[in-house]
Amino acid sequence: MKRIQAQCSKELRQFSRDRLTVALAFALPLLSLFLYGFATRLEIKNIPIVVQNFDNSLTSRSLIERLFANDQFMPTMWAGKEVIRDALNTGSAAAAIVIPPEFDRLLHSGRVSPIEALIDGTDVNNARVIKNSLIATTDSFLIASGLTQYEPAIKADVRLWFNPGRKESLYVVPGSFGVILWIYPALLAALAMAREREQGTILQAYTSGLTALELIAGKVLAYLIVGLAEALVLILVSSVVFGISLAGDPMLFTLSTLLYVVDATLFGLLIAIGAATQSAAVQSVAFGGFTPALLLSGYLYPVRNIKYPLSLLANIVPARYYIELSRDTFVRGSGWAGQWHVPLVLAAIGVFFFIVASKRLGRMQISA
Q1: Whether 266 and 362 share a structural domain
Q2: What percentage of residues in the chain have a pLDDT greater than 90?
Q3: How many structural domains are present in the chain?
Q4: Per residue in 160-197, pLDDT tens?
Q5: For residue 78, what pLDDT is reported?
Q6: 313 with 179, same domain?
């Protein structure tokens, strides 16, 4: 145990002496938090649309006002048909609405008065959102104006739980914890190990009598301390800037964060053991760690949307489980009843990483 503590102390001293590494450990995670928190938007707003009103009646103008009554649509230009086509072709408008002549007269005579909606289908998801929003807006306009006798047989009374204000930061920021706390502890550990291999100073550890288990345990303990400090800073800054707060069991989140940072550190060490240079270690961690944590974890879109066979790979991405737990802890708050499996999965992944890293480093000691 004393050897592990000595190795941990040595790593922390080397870490604190390198200002660039300290900046990498704390400044970049905060920058990433702000980028994810302010730049990631899953609900589109301020969709530019262009409207051509051939009727120019009070009813048609009221419909146009209803379209722009929220922050989902915004007017981009009012023009003729050729300019509408140009607006869609150039991308300055995502949709165009054409209100035909005699729109008001047909509606008040009880007949159908169709309007034309041209939607840019380049982005399929946005096109689907625009279509549904236009249909919902026109339906609500007709009911509110008394222009339809249709009353639905079933009326849903919708209530939003856990996030009634629909604040995207409550969903995005806790999810970003999983990406940030995976990439940076792994990157720091990988740089530390790769630097020793590149400079040859790891041979001193080999000749000192340290076993592979002790060497890895010492490094993991050191960067676990750094990773937990990063997590604490991220949570404090997020609570002040984005207004998030704990809704679930803090003990479950604390335990899982500890295991998650250990997994990230072990992953970085495992990558660095097989990398000959620091640049190779950084590139390997970025590709093998950051990309799956961002795309296969459920951070940007649900895991169930991932196609086979990549959906199988998502099951072994630790960030998937931690992001699910983090969002539950800060939004839903189901606690142990809903997230009991997360620490078990993270512990199993950590044991696997530790065994593989120890064996690979042990073979390197023997060959050295």
Answers
A1: yes
A2: 36
A3: 2
A4: 888 888 888 899 999 999 999 999 999 999 988 888 87
A5: 57
A6: yes
Q: Which residues contact 194 (CB under 8 A, 6 or more apart)?
A: 272, 275, 277, 278, 280, 281
- Kindly state whether residues 193 and 233 are assigned to the same domain: yes
Alpha helices for 79-211 (secondary structure H)? 81-90, 103-108, 124-145, 169-199, 202-207
Residues 124, 19 share a domain: no
Q: Indicate whether 130 and 17 sit together in one domain.
A: no
What are the residue ranges in the chain where pLDDT is below 70?
A: 77-82, 148-152, 200-208, 364-368
SS (H, E, C) 303-314: HHHCCCCHHHHH
Can you give 34-68 as a three-state secondary structure string? Answer: HHHHHHCCCCCCCEEEEEEECCCCHHHHHHHHHHC
Per DSSP, the chain holds a count of helices (H) and strands (E) of 16, 4
Could you tell me if 22 and 60 lie in one domain? no
Do residues 332 and 162 make contact, with C-beta atoms less than 8 angstroms apart? yes
Q: Is residue 232 part of a domain?
A: yes
Task: Identify whether 120 is part of a domain.
Answer: yes
Q: Directed axis angle between helix 58-67 and helix 124-145, to 10°?
A: 130
Q: Which residues, 6 or more positions from 57, have their beta carbon under 8 angstroms from its beta carbon?
A: 103, 104
How many CA atoms, within 13 angstroms, populate the side-chain half-sphere of residue 306?
Answer: 19
